[in-house]
Amino acid sequence: MDGFTQNVMGVSDLIESDTNKVRNSDDSPEGAQGDQYDILDLPMSDEELLRLRDDWENTYAPYEGKYKEVPKRNLRSYLGRDKSGRLIGEEEGGAANLQFEAEETFLPAALAQNPDPLVWSDNKPGGQELSDTVKVMLQFHAQQLLLRRKLEVMARQWSIYHLGVLKAGWNKQIKDVTIDNRKIQDFIFDPDGYVDVYGDFSSWLGERITVTAERLIELFPKHKEYIEHTVSVEDKVKLGTKVTYTEWWNDDYCFSTYKKIVLDKHKNENFNYDEGEQEPDPLTGQVPPPKPNHFAIPKKPYIFLSVFSLQEQPHDITGLIEQNIPNQQKISRRTEQIDEGVSAANNGLLLSEDNFNQETGKQAVNAIRTKTGFILVPSGKPLGEAVARLQAPSFPDSAFKDLDNSERHLLESWGVQGIASQEQKPDETARGMILNQGRDTSRIGGGISDILEQSVAKSCYDWLVQLYCVNYDQKHFAAVMGTGASVQYVEFESADMTHQLVIGVAANSMMPKDETAIANQAISLFGSGAIGPKTLLERLNFPDADDAASDGALWKFSEATDGGMTYITLNFPQLAQQLQQMQQQQQQAQQQAQQQELAMQGAQGQQEIQQKAQAGNQQIQQKEQAHQQQMRHGEEGHQQKVQQSTELASAKMAQMKDKVPA
Description:
The chain has 662 residues and is of the alpha+beta class. 51% of the residues lie in helices and 12% in strands. The protein has helices spanning 3-16, 46-67, 69-79, 98-110, 127-144, 147-161, 213-219, 224-230, 320-347, 358-369, 383-386, 397-414, 430-441, 448-471, 515-527, 533-539, 545-562, 565-571, 573-659; strands at 117-120, 164-171, 176-181, 187-189, 205-212, 232-233, 236-237, 242-249, 253-258, 261-267, 302-305, 349-351, 387-389, 476-481, 487-492, 502-505. Strand 6 and strand 7 form a beta hairpin. The protein is elongated.
């Protein structure tokens, strides 16, 4: 139990104790006990709180003094500057600042997208609907609050100060939730406290906040006279003066101090405390349900990024920039040595003392090193004897290899060695695409990106849900781009929190995604039959993938069964009706054409029959005539033969008569 809580409990025990108090005539133990306090009142005097502030500041001072040099050294290395603030290599060509390059390569890769929230609830009625609504709210605020950019600033802050911080709260001007970056160097910590794996600080802390005097009066109007007095010069109030006050926190309470006064003190306003029995609603007669909480207990409204911690002190024991300072120094030295070696190899000269003295010789060497292109040779020996170039010694390859190893080790410590640009190679399989993409993203950040995602981003979403519970007394809306570029719109208020929710962040959801590689992979998997059209269209980010996939399936089925008529009937009923009318007209035209053709064929048949009958009659007549003619010819021949026979017989009879004797 920290000192702050012990003081609160001590004062509470003193107030509630019966010692040195006179009881009322009613000795009943029931009813109000002691003095009356509002639910957010802090029962400690201002003098006690000011003494507590002084104790905490004195406790932190030795730790702060020991720690101050760490961020200064880290910042110099990040900026590539020496202790005097001069840019390293400003006058002469220096080594590349890989500290800056490595971190600024890591941050866009590890924080390429907003973290994708996951929301679970129970299986009771309304649970899934509540989960979906809260998920949309979280996605909406991640976009509106530019959460990804704030996480990037937080990570850069951690690299310099060994601790990063965000503050969750309620913006009274826009009346909505907010998550903001805060300056970690403005914090005062319990030296024995630490940041746990959830991103929460384990003990008390304070934040020095600098505003104008005018703004401080707006925040704490009760102390206007005192604040004006502190910024008065010769009886003139300078409200534009920058002033600093301190906001002190533990999980249960908060109080603010400014010089010799306590500006405000209250219990944690980011938690719905049990208000005891409530009066029934005069309209409905029902007792309103208690206000919900996402958190089981109150928490300080800060989210910290801590990576290399033994949980023995507030800040991390080390960081990547600090660990790589010797490596960067070695790279700078090795680059300088190589540069000097190469320069010496190119500019090694022998100058005759008969022509040059020490001053003119230095001028000649500098003229060549600065590439002015010429030197003036003083009189003396002939030119060929006045200046001679030395034979350049070979520079060892080990120096270049050592430089390359040092640069590679520094980049690998940030996990960005695998993100270097490479020549594109054709991907033949989906597996090949996945492997190629893995080479670029699997090593990003080591454990830092995982902590940013699963600890910090998750805590941000948990805090947003808690702030919904505390502050959303009225409906608030959210709209996000859903699957397939469709817009999802929801409304939400704290009364809708009828189920306990579990919040998470999808693994690797903040990593960069190559849309072209994803599309090629999806097309390859679809071509091999590993996924269906719906999944393909979702991977391609096609609008309304469900409708598009069902539409395609219906078309293929309709095309195979009835030539697409079912598809047309369901999707284009008017066109289907027109097509049916056209089909009926075509059928009628075909029937008429067939009837006409049959009629024509019948007429042609009758004509052919008549022609055939006439031809048959003609053939019969011709045959009859030929037969009759043949009969006549035969009869005439027979008659001729009979006549000839008769004549021949008559002749023979005559001859015989002639031969018979008279």
